[in-house]
Amino acid sequence: MDEAKLAKDSVWIGIISGNLADHAWRKGEKEKAIGLVKKNIELSMRYNERKDAMRANLNLANWYIELKEWKLAEQYVMTCESLMEDKPYFLKYKVELAKSKSNIMRGLGRGGEELKQLHLYLMLKDSLEKRMNDKEIQKMLWQRESEKYNRTIQATEEKRIRTKRMYQFIGIVLLLIFAIIVLLVNKSKIKIKMRNTLLEKDQLALADEKQLLDQELMILRNSLTEFTATIRQNDVVIQQLRQEVAKISESDPAYITQVTDNLNALLQQHIMTDERWQKFKHVFNKVYPAYLTQMRQTYPKVTENDLKILALLKLDLSNASMSELLCVSEKAVRKAKQRLKKKNRTH
């Protein structure tokens, strides 16, 4: 109590004084209790605690009613009423005040005032009960709204959790898709790399094959060139041998026989037999792959002998060389060439 006074805490002063007064009243120390309440009223008014002073005055009035001190009770009731305000908070105290005033009026023998206060008491009591009911209804409404709000919050939270899980699921799916794409891309890169490696190997193989073919073609060209040169050289030798035979045909029979044998042997080697033609044609087709095929298209009724003439013409051999190779006269060669030209003009 002293600490509350030192701190000038009017609320605690009122609470402590009221509690001490109630305790003293219950113990039968009525004078002490009344003194404590009066002290409470004094301190409450000093610190402008009108509500506490109002409650203390009403409490003191009720005690004086109990002591049948009607005048003192009326005095404190009037003081209590003067401290009340027209606010909902004071309604329950107004009910108690009306009841106390009716008791005082009965004690003072004022029947009319007693009835008036009783009527006011009943009205205020109904109003208080109605207000309490309204409060209960309001409380229920607030509770319902609170539950609704809580349900809304819970539903929102559940929706948030579902949305979060959905986004997490979508994120995981996207990560899996990304991982699959990366794997597929890497796999494709590996396949492309392997394919490129195989292509490089194939290109190298083709390059090697082409190089071999080029080398083979070069060899065949050289062979064909060498063949042509040999034919021309043999033509010269054959002509020389024939001239030599003509000069000494009667002077030296033994030498003529030797020269004739050499000439026949050379001619035998020089003549293009069917077997030699097939070998020659194989080499010729390698060097000039489309030539004979084109000649067949140009001359639909061309014969194998015609192809021989055409192939030898491609090598730029003379009529004499062709006649020696084919074992025909130069006149026959010229006729064959003329026949081919005629076929060409016809087509």
Topology (SSEs and partners):
Layout: H1 2-6, H2 10-26, H3 30-46, H4 50-66, H5 70-83, H6 91-108, H7 111-247, H8 253-270, H9 274-287, H10 291-298, H11 304-314, H12 319-326, H13 330-346
Helix pairs in contact: 2-3, 3-4, 4-5, 4-6, 5-6, 6-7, 7-8, 7-9, 12-13
Verbal overview:
- Among the domains are: 1-109, Serine Threonine Protein Phosphatase 5, Tetratricopeptide repeat (Alpha Horseshoe), CATH 1.25.40.10; 234-344, no CATH class.
- The chain has 13 helices and no strands.
- It has helices at 2-6, 10-26, 30-46, 50-66, 70-83, 91-108, 111-247, 253-270, 274-287, 291-298, 304-314, 319-326, 330-346.
- Helix 4 runs antiparallel to helix 5 (70-83), helix 4 runs parallel beside helix 6 (91-108) and helix 7 runs antiparallel to helix 8.
- The chain starts with a helix and ends with a helix.
- Mean pLDDT is 80; it is low at 1-8.
Explain briefly what this protein structure is:
The chain has helices at residues 2-6, 10-26, 30-46, 50-66, 70-83, 91-108, 111-247, 253-270, 274-287, 291-298, 304-314, 319-326, 330-346. With 347 residues, the protein is mainly alpha-helical.
Main beta sheet, described? none
| Order of helix and strand elements from N to C terminus | HHHHHHHHHHHHH
**What is the arithmetic mean of pLDDT?**
80
Q: Tell me the span between the first and last alpha carbons.
A: 145 Å
Uncertain regions: pLDDT < 50 for 5+ in a row? 1-8
Evaluate the radius of gyration. 72 Å
How many distinct beta strands?
A: 0
Structural class given helices, strands, pairing? mainly alpha
Q: Give the helix level as a range of percent.
A: over 70%
**Overall outline:** rod-shaped
Alpha plus pi helix count = 13
The fraction of residues in strands falls at: under 5%
